[in-house]
Amino acid sequence: MSFFYDVFGLLYWIITQIFFSLYNLFYAITHPLSWLNWNDKEALMKFIYYGGSQELFFVFVTLFLFITIIGNFYHKILWFFVRILEKFCNKIGHIFAWAGLIMVIQQIMVVFIQRIFTRAEISIGFGIPFEFDISWFAEELKLYNAMVICLCVAYTFIQQGHVRVDIFYSRVSFQTKKIIDMFGSLFFMVPMAVILWMYSWFFMWRHLITPKVSASDKIELLIRKSKILKWNVETIGFSPNGFSAYFLFKILIIALVALIFIQAISFFWRSYLEWKEGENSENKYLELEKFDDFSNASEK
After folding, report:
1. Whose CA is closest to 93, among 255, 271, 201?
2. Contact assessment for residue 39 and residue 213, using Cβ atoms and an 8 Å cutoff
3. Domain boundaries, the chain
4. How many other C-beta atoms can be found within 10 angstroms of the C-beta atom of residue 29?
5. CA-based nearest residue to 93, from 146, 150, 141
6. Taking the model in full, what pTM does it have?
């Protein structure tokens, strides 16, 4: 009996949280200054708390369930969200893929200035120059590398560019493949994204403000901490003259997790629609990159 009681209690808690999420979403939309007015220290602490809270999680769960249920009857609506999310990830990937080129150019510039011209610093700009030590620009290369990894991960997934270790996937039927994809999205990608978000969200804020915050802090404690809150952005490098904006790496972790979460949801919806509509809908509306012109040019 205790087992069934626990199961009933869990279901009751989940249903309650889903209903409360509707109120929380409505309140957040109608009272934006209560969490977006960062001049108010309490509002900033509320933003930090709810950004990694179960309340926010159930808001997304409720939206996901609502869109999925509606999309089950009206496939065009669900395809619309799939296309929007995939287009968003593709655009982000297109933009920040250029960071790879910038990284190569800057690496060449660092080598030339340091080894050939034997200069200790680089000055860029007119009037008031942007001037840092050569080691600052050398360490900044890691930021471009992190941009490519964190902000192009969903784009690469959409373009089917990730390495796959296929044990039995290619041998099963189309319908089974879609079931595997849906299961993987919900029970691997989403839980991983949630866990990473919980750790990285508060990890980021610990390098931006004082006093330190953690996932175990209650809202009442954070409100009390807000009285002594101040910005303390991390600007300490690994070397005296090295790169001084390492807080950007923490922000990139958050962006990475957000893109993983977005891609997990869109991939679930795509797999679900392809499962329902059959093989004719495989890769429907999928915007894959074409490199025919480049391959033909190389052959010539």
Report:
1. 255
2. no
3. 74-289
4. 8
5. 150
6. 0.89
**130-133 vs 209-210, strand pairing mode:** unpaired
Q: Which of 53, 264, 249, 64 is nearest to 154 (CA)?
A: 264
Residues in a beta bridge with 226: none
Tell me which residue has tokens 């902000």.
151
Give the model confidence (pLDDT) of 29-38 as tens digits: 999 988 889 9
Q: Which two tokens stand for residue 192?
A: 């991983």
Residue 91: the pLDDT is: 95
- Tokens 């930090």 locate to 48
Strand ranges for 24-177 from DSSP E: 121-124, 130-133
In the chain, the amino acid numbered 10 is L
| Alpha helix segments (H runs only) across 122-237 | 134-151, 153-158, 174-184, 190-205, 219-225
pLDDT for 212 equals 92
In this structure, how many other beta carbons lie within 10 angstroms of the beta carbon of residue 136?
Answer: 19
Question: Which of 238-243's residues contact partners 24+ apart within 8 Å by CB, and which partners?
Answer: 238/139, 239/135, 239/139, 241/132, 241/133, 241/135, 241/136, 242/133, 242/135, 242/136, 242/139, 243/136, 243/139, 243/140, 243/142, 243/143
Query: CA separation (Å) from 162 to 4, 76, 149, 153, 158?
Result: 42, 28, 12, 9, 9
- What is the mean pLDDT of each successive set of 10 residues along the chain, which is 300 residues long? 77 91 93 90 94 94 95 94 96 94 91 78 69 82 94 93 80 92 94 93 94 91 93 80 87 96 96 93 87 49
Long-range residue pairs from 97-105, CB within 8 A, at least 24 positions apart, any chain: 97/148, 97/152, 97/155, 99/144, 99/145, 99/147, 99/148, 99/151, 100/144, 100/148, 102/144, 103/141, 103/144, 103/145, 103/148
Nearest to 194 by CA among 265, 268, 258: 258
Nearest Cα to Cα of residue 206 among 247, 242, 235, 244: 247
What is the model's pLDDT at position 99? Answer: 94
